[in-house]
Structure formats: C-alpha cells, structure tokens
Amino acid sequence: xxxxxxxxxxxxxxxxxxxxxxxxxxxxxxxxxxxxxxxxxxxxxxxxxxxxxxxxxxxxxxxxxxxxxxxxxxxxxxxxxxxxxxxxxxxxxxxxxxxxxxxxxxxxxxxxxxxxxxxxxxxxxxxxxxxxxxxxxxxxxxxxxxxxxxxxxxxxxxxxxxxxxxxxxxxxxxxxxxxxxxxxxxxxxxxxxxxxxxxxxxxxxxxxxxxxxxxxxxxxxxxxxxxxxxxxxxxxxxxxxxxxxxxxxxxxxxxxxxxxxxxxxxxxxxxxxxxxxxxxxxxxxxxxxxxxxxxxxxxxxxxxxxxxxxxxxxxxxxxxxxxxxxxxxxxxxxxxxxxxxxxxxxxxxxxxxxxxxxxxxxxxxxxxxxxxxxxxxxxxxxxxxxxxxxxxxxxxxxxxxxxxxxxxxxxxxxxxxxxxxxxxxxxxxxxxxxxxxxxxxxxxxxxxxxxxxxxxxxxxxxxxxxxxxxx
Length: 471
Hints:
This protein has helices spanning 6-20, 23-32, 38-60, 67-88, 94-101, 105-110, 114-133, 141-165, 167-176, 187-200, 219-227, 276-283, 294-299, 303-309, 358-363, 409-434, and strands spanning 4-5, 136-137, 229-237, 313-319, 332-335, 369-375, 441-449, 454-455, 461-462. 46% of the residues lie in helices and 9% in strands. The chain is elongated, with a radius of gyration of 26 Å. The protein has 16 helices and nine strands. The mean pLDDT is 92.
C-alpha cells in the first residue's frame, strides 16, 4: 500500500466529510439561496471553504502521534452527527450535547435504529478502519514543521481568497443567515464541544449560591396551617405541545377527562428552553428565560430549596424521566424508571405508577405542608408509541417505530396524540388522588410541560434546537 503524508490524509478526510456528511447543511443552504447564475458559484464555494477550514484545523492539531487518533475520533463522531442532522434536522450545539450526556440508557435506546448503524458503519467505522491501516510517511522534524507551515499557509490563503472574493455573499451568509453554519459537519459540533467544556469544566462554576435562607412562614400562615394544611402536586410534563391539547382548541379530543374537571387552563405560556436539560432547571430557577443559563441553573439554589428552608414543607420529587436535572439534589428524590419502585410497568414504566405510595409520604408528614413533584416520561420521542399503553391507541394508524422518517406525518401525529391522551388520563388520576384530601387540605395540581416538540413540520423532528430557531 502506498504511503501518504499526514497532510494528504488530512485533506482526503476533509474532502470525504464535506462531501458525505453535510447533506443537511446543503439542503438548508438551497432553501435560502437560489441555485442559478452567480448562486451556483456561491454554492460551490461553500464546500471548498469547508474543506480548506477542516484541513487547516486538523493540520494545526496534527503530529506524528495525534493525526490518526484525531481523524478517527472526528470521523466516528461526525457520522453520529450526520445521522441526527439528516434524520431529525437538529443542530449539535452545547445544549444538545448536555441533553445527550444527561440522557439515560432507556431514552438512548429509543434513538437506536438500523439507519443509525448504517450511518456509523459506512461513514464512521469503515473509513476509520481504512485510515488506521493506511501507512503514513513522516520526514524529519524540520521537514514536517515546514510541511505543516506550508499547508497552513495555503489553506489560510484559500479561506481568505474565497471569503474576500465573494465578500458580498459571505457577509449575507454569516450575518443574515447565521443558523446555516450550525449545520456544518464537523466544524459546528467541534465548536459546541469546546463551548460546552468552557462552560462546565471549571469546578468553580458549580459552587452553590444560597438563596432564600431566611425564608419562613408568616405568623398568619402558621395560624392558617394549623387549621388547614396544603398539598400541591406539580407535574412536569415532557415534550407536550400546547396546540395538541383539545383544552386549547385542538380539533381532536385529546383531553376527554380533563375537560370534565373544574380546572384553570393557561393557554398563553412559553417554555423556558427547548431541551429537558435546560428547561427543567429554568422552570424552578429564580431567573427568567432571558437571564437563565445552565451555569446559573446549577450554581444557584432553586424554588424547591427556598421552600425547604422554611422547614414547614415536606418536599418529594418522583421521576419517571431521566432525572431532575439537578433541581432535586437537596430534597427527597425517588427514581420511578425501574420496576423495583414503579409498580405499573409493561413495555416501560408508566407515569401513573408515580402515584402509588404517595399516601404514605403525606401520612409521614402530619405537621407539614406537602409539595410533590412528578416528572413525567410524557411524550418523549421519537418512540411515541411506547409512551402509552395500547388501550390508549385511539388515533390510528399510529407510527410504530422510532424511525419517524419512515412514517407519514399523519402516523407520527397519531402516535403523539395518543401519548397526549395518556397524559390526560394521568393528570385526571392526579386530580382523583387529591380529591379525598380536599376535606382537610387545600389541594392543588399544577401541570406544565418542559418544552414542545417538532413532528415533521418543515422536516424538523423532536426538540433541542436553539430557542430562536425552534418553531
């Protein structure tokens, strides 16, 4: 097998990734810019610029001992990125990375498909194996230094030549259509990894700031509490769209049970984020959406902490999702994703199971007000058909796979609406649980979903894209 210099190998990998792993990027570019006349030249310049930039970046990081491991890692990681961008039209930003790192095994298994295997095998593992077997020719340290300098100079020159010769187009591209570059693979996910590390690697970022340590009940509230205590159940939903609730005017009857209850429905509400990892901490944070970031969310005590400081409220978080995203670190927490704790499990453990045994928690705190948080699995995608027992499959045909692109939009919507129907049932069960306590307690249920969900509109699925891009 003929030997290559490491710089020819780097260039070859850059060409391969630009050609084979950027279909989503090219698709979005063509949605914005016309492919005719001068537009053809503009379009052709984009992959050339991406090749030059990748070659420059990998050359900068290359050495006798790092080139192959670096390229293999980037190839495999980029094959995953290409799959999710091509299939679900998502972008791999630092928020998406945080969401992925905090996802449990059950949620991850919903994303595992034969198509994913195909992508990783064909675009990641096979090229990596060939790269691993490829013998490289190295010169002396001096010759390698000057060779690297030459490649860096040429690629930098190409980058500057392309950008400045088509300056009018690139001014528009970078300023007016900023989201387009979020789809470049591997450059944007590499940037996002660096951004994620810079935000989270420093332990000082997570020094807990106390909040509301002086929180207490007023004498009036203490006197009232002696006569009538309070029970509040907060249900944190998952990926539930407001426009799929018939309470909000949706034409399908997805809330047949809730509509029979005397409830208040707040229809003009916006989510705090587009992913569970961001939105759930934000929902319990002292900061509003515009002022919130993940660092603040984990380094400043939240609403549950302030309530706990009163020493008058017994707090319990039960979770049938991934976890509390650090919200419940300092209060009682119970994991209901497992049959050992959740007594209502079939294909997966159901949200309804979180109600079992709550009577005991209330009875064990006879002198305190009660705050219970129930974190649903709700409408977590893409396997919507798993989110409800079969008796709730009212809307058919329902998509029966996690490969949403293989189903029609109607089938995806049917499965999603069936999961909303199960949430309606679950919330009605929460209300039914509270009603017997209403004779001696002031009881309240508050339901709010963490974020919405895309169901194939404009080719976009799931959630987690940047807030300003989310529909």
